[in-house]
């Protein structure tokens, strides 16, 4: 807890300084501390994304960035903006911040933390963006800009990777500063994302902030659209947000095309990043084939697509069984999955129906545009992979719009207090959720409170691995463990190794003498097949 607090006190002024720099370049997102901080997050994330094409995001990048941010923060005396908070505001901010810091000090339990987030951060801090990295592990092809942002602060400022906890403090600051108390109601459930650099948290928070600004009448088209594209850049399932902002300013306020140029440039950077790491403009969709040598093998993409379809049904049906579904079966089986997933799916559809009726009754242009944008996003998600984690943000948006005018300060603080106690109890005593909601699988990975986390946040170490070589690639595989979160690079997860074997290909270095030149997929020779079979046999024998 103490170390997260120190990181927060250190990083927030840095972001404010960078925000001041960005405001001088493209204008003010909105007045206040949180406006500068969010502009700083946007600016430094984009700069680090460009830098990571050329060099790793190590201390050589972090230290100058910190010094520059602190310089502008103190030069412009931005710390004086704390004076705008009243004594009562400080109490609310202090309590909410301590709650966030406590929640963020628990062990990470989201499986993507070990299989996706940490490996991504290791590549970024040690090598930067690597061409064709998706050939080593397809999930690495995402390289979310949120992980670029986290990587830049992970060497010194936030070595325990609790940037999401810091973002939650910033979010509570925003709600208090703007006197939009409903935001406090969302904090308790968002505490569940505070232990890992999950991109789900920032996209939910940023979308709610942008929605709030649009409703409040913020007409800074350029920066709001740019920020909405930035949210899409973090997680493409947020496609509804830039659509909404674009429709709002083009249909209602008749903005000219020049005001969308910054956002368009950010979108272009997003496409370039994906093409560099994945081979196609939008991960994980194989659309826009440029014939690049480092694009993933079609068989790997096919396996990934089949897996996504099975994940839609919570792995309760095989791909072959799903292929035999009729249209009625697709719908019925999705609504009748075993466990909590079916309830979430039903609630999702009910939420959309309620919101459609609400929009029809209100007959307001903005609410109608929000509804249209959410429906577009929902259709896209349902077509590609209707996993609940891809439409979680819809619940927050619907609740926000429906109850925007209902929650005042008193009601919001009551909801925040009650539900914070509830979710902190779940984190501290996970046996409750493991007993009563066993189908909520991530709950089984929660470990409860340990006194050591009062000083520093809890983290895992494994550091057991085996080293192999196939073709010109020497790589490491975690020993008797499915993820490679602290395995030295280059590391390949066992599951992806099996996919490679099934596809008859294996990643190879573009330049055998320089890993930074990237990876390509290559059909295995008979000799390489023998080499990889030895690796497979070793893994299978280890797992027995």
Report what the structure shows.
It is globular, with a radius of gyration of 23 Å. The chain has 22 helices and four strands. The strands form two sheets. A two-stranded antiparallel ribbon has the order 1-2. With 544 residues, it is mainly alpha-helical. A hairpin with a 2-residue loop joins β1 and β2 (473-478).
Quick summary:
With 544 residues, the chain is mainly alpha-helical. It has helices at residues 2-26, 33-51, 59-75, 87-104, 111-126, 145-153, 163-177, 183-190, 200-215, 221-234, 240-252, 261-277, 298-312, 319-323, 327-335, 340-362, 365-384, 392-402, 409-428, 431-436, 494-503, 526-543; strands at residues 465-470, 473-478, 505-509, 519-523. The protein has 22 helices and 4 strands.
- The helix tally amounts to 22
Helix content: 55-70%
Radius of gyration: 23 Å
State the order of secondary-structure elements, H for helix, E for strand.
HHHHHHHHHHHHHHHHHHHHEEHEEH
How many distinct beta strands?
4
Q: Tell me what portion of residues adopts beta-strand conformation.
A: under 5%
Strand order in the largest sheet: 1-2
Molecular shape:
globular
- Structural class by helix and strand composition: mainly alpha
Mean pLDDT: 90
Question: How far is it from the N-terminal to the C-terminal residue, by CA?
Answer: 39 Å
Low-pLDDT parts are none
Sheet bearing the most strands, described?
A: 2 strands, antiparallel
């Amino acid at each position: 807890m103490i170390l997260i607090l120190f990181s927060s006190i250190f990083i927030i002024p840095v972001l404010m300084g960078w925000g001041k720099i960005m405001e001088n370049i493209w204008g003010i997102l909105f007045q206040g501390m949180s406006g500068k901080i969010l502009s700083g997050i946007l600016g430094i994330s984009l700069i680090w994304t460009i830098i990571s094409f050329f060099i790793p995001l190590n201390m050589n990048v972090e230290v100058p960035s910190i010094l520059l941010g602190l310089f502008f923060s103190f030069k412009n005396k931005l710390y004086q903006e704390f004076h705008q908070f009243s004594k009562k505001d400080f109490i609310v901010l202090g309590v909410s911040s301590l709650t966030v810091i406590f929640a963020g000090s628990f062990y990470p339990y989201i499986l993507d933390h070990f299989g996706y987030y940490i490996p991504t951060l290791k590549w970024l801090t040690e090598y930067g963006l690597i061409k064709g990295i998706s050939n080593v592990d397809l999930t690495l092809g995402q390289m979310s800009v949120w992980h670029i942002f986290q990587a830049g602060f992970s060497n010194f400022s936030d070595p325990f990777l609790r940037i999401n906890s810091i973002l939650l403090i910033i979010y509570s600051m925003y709600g208090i500063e703007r006197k939009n108390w409903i935001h406090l109601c969302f904090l308790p459930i968002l505490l569940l994302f505070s232990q890992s650099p999950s991109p789900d948290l920032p996209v939910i928070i940023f979308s709610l902030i942008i929605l709030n600004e649009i409703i409040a009448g913020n007409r800074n088209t350029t920066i709001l659209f740019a920020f909405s594209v930035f949210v899409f850049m973090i997680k493409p399932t947020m496609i509804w947000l830039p659509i909404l902002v674009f429709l709002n300013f083009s249909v209602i306020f008749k903005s000219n095309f020049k005001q969308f140029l910054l956002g368009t440039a950010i979108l272009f950077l997003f496409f370039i990043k994906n093409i560099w790491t994945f081979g196609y403009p939008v991960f994980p969709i194989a659309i826009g084939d440029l014939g690049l040598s480092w694009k993933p093998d079609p068989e790997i993409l096919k396996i990934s697509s089949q897996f996504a379809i099975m994940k839609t049904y919570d792995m309760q049906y095989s791909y072959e069984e799903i292929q035999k579904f009729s249209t009625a079966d697709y719908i019925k089986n999705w609504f009748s999955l075993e466990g909590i997933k079916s309830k979430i799916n039903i609630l999702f559809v009910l939420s959309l129906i309620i919101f459609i009726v609400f929009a029809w009754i209100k007959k307001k242009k903005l609410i109608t545009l929000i509804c249209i944008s959410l429906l577009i996003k929902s259709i896209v998600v349902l077509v590609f992979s209707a996993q609940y984690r891809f439409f979680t943000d819809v619940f927050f948006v619907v609740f926000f719009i429906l109850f925007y005018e209902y929650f005042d300060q008193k009601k919001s603080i009551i909801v925040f207090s009650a539900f914070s106690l509830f979710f902190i109890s779940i984190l501290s005593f996970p046996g409750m959720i493991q007993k009563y909601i066993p189908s909520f699988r991530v709950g089984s990975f929660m470990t409860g409170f340990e006194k050591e986390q009062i000083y520093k946040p809890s983290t895992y170490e494994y550091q057991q691995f085996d080293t192999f070589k196939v073709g010109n690639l020497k790589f490491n595989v975690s020993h008797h463990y499915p993820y490679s979160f602290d395995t030295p690079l280059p590391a390949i997860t066992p599951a992806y190794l099996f996919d490679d074997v099934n596809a008859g290909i294996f990643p190879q270095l573009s330049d055998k003498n320089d890993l930074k030149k990237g990876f390509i997929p290559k059909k295995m020779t008979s000799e390489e097949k023998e080499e990889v079979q030895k690796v497979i046999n070793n893994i299978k024998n280890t797992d027995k």
